[in-house]
Amino acid sequence: RIVAVADCKIQTMLHEVILALSGFTGDVFVEDQSGIHVASEFPCIHAGEKAVLNKLARIGFLYKRLKSFIELHLTSLAKQGTGLYLKALSSGLNTVLTPYRDTLLQAEQDVLKDPYLPVTHLQHLLEPFQLLLPALDTIVHEIVQQQVCGCGVLHVLHQHSVSGNPAIQDAVQRLLQTCHGVLYRQLAAWFLHGSLMDRHDEFFIRKEVSDEQAAIGMDEEDTRTNTGGKSRIQRFVVVYDLLPSYLPQRVAEKMLFVGEAVQLFSTRKVAGVRQRTLSQAEESSILSHLAALEQQPTFNLMQLESVVDDIKSTVSQHLWQLLMEESDLLGQLQTLKSYFLLGRGELFLMFIELADNLLKEPANDNTEHDVNLVFKQAFHKVTSDGDDIFRHFHLSIAPKQDNGDRLCGWDRLSLEYTVDWPLHILFTPRVLEKCISTTHQLSALVAMFSVFSRFVMLFKFFLIVKRAQLALQDAWVQQMVTKRAFECEQPRLAALWRLRYQMSFLVNNLQYYLQVDVLESQYSVLVAKMKSSRDFEESRVALDTFLATVLAQSFLLVRPVAHCLEKILNMCLQFSALTAYGIQVTDRDLTEAERMSTAFDRHASLLFKILSSAQTHQGSAHLAQLLLRLDYNHYYSESMALSKGSA
Question: Is pLDDT at 538 greater than 50 in this prediction?
């Protein structure tokens, strides 16, 4: 009887241990803030046995915490705070812990078969989990404490995926594979439909909501309805804070491009255009590639980027066809060149003539309305074409500066353009950024500017060059009238004529250089690349290269040169105003002209010196062409030599 009672107590003890390993307490094991352990008042137990039992109970406590995390996210499916990645992690943990539960079942069966089994037998069975469960608990604890969600779960798992213990590394890789399944399904929806399967804002690609939309609560459908699905299409951005650390930004940007392009195709039905999207074979190929990646036990960045590149190439070809063959991209580029880069010289010649009196004064609240009426009047005077293209352009007056300067209307004038669907995706719809408000900013760096910001920079620079050229031509007309009517005044006005000739020489050569040597040559290169390419990205790179090259060869990126040109062109405009009244030039005006002549010579010499130095170090062909035009008779080079000799 005593032996039977002892056997019963031993068997009961082993069952208590198994229950503790399952996360349950009883008479032998109790739970407090430190975890599950042997009750202190439990009698007749050796200190060594107690240490073994507490070690086993620690595993049970960790299992209980992991099971609570799993139940919290898998049984509360309707809970708003539970995202797809946390559910996937919980599902993966449940799978990873299956061997542990099987081991407990095996231990229970062994105890039923042999009630004399020692506790060390259980210790032997559970030895593989002595390191695994603490590692899993550390991951879950970090996620809970830092409130990690979404793609941040992938980042935490990736940080713990490298381990010297094969069991831990294999378990974390299985968790990563499960969570990557959510990522691949989100990518499939994004690549195929341009839609975000992201109810909990977990994906690293999100909708970009403007300030106006956020203020009035306008969603994507409202935006399309109000604009006819053309000019204002929902934009998306990469949220880099949510991007897993092992996923490079370049890959995320490619993913963003693919989804935006596919979303653009889907809006064609809204825009009333015949829909063209990915073929069924292409969609099946995308799904099969993503499914193959999902089945891989370990994440392979090179394979993922290769798949994204293939998808991007396919989408780029469709997008190129849409832009080039159906939306007349080359015609749009020619339109931009005609207006932003003053390709229609006759239009801007008439506009400058009609708007000069209005814009040479400080702008007021009515100036923008009036100048657009003048612009439309100039358009109808020089052409009989309809308003289909002209209606896309709008002249704007930049807001006043806080520095107190009273700028005239010309200095605050800018040109805006409304892009038709679907060309907005090429010209980046953060369009017409009014980042350039005055001509004093012409020398600002523009490396990060949008396409239209760079067009605006060139427009403002080309316009002031054109104004200076026309002003000097008007001054020549006045001089010819004075020369024929008042021959006695010729010696007195000779200095004015000489200064006008020097200014005209420099400005005319600069204008010819900009329009012929720079603009026409680079535009022909752009058109050739557009025609030879069958890829949207190549076309966008060609456009960016064109704008960057024109900006560089127009010297707007070199601050000293841009500053000199700005001073010279403003001086030409001041000179024209000085000679506008012909014979009525006073001695005070002549004194001012003499001072202006000295300043012009200084700035022109400095400009030639800077350009010569840049040509020596860079060997640029466009610089050599301009220097050859300016110094065809060695006037500036000899002046530089004389100044060095006198020094």
Answer: yes
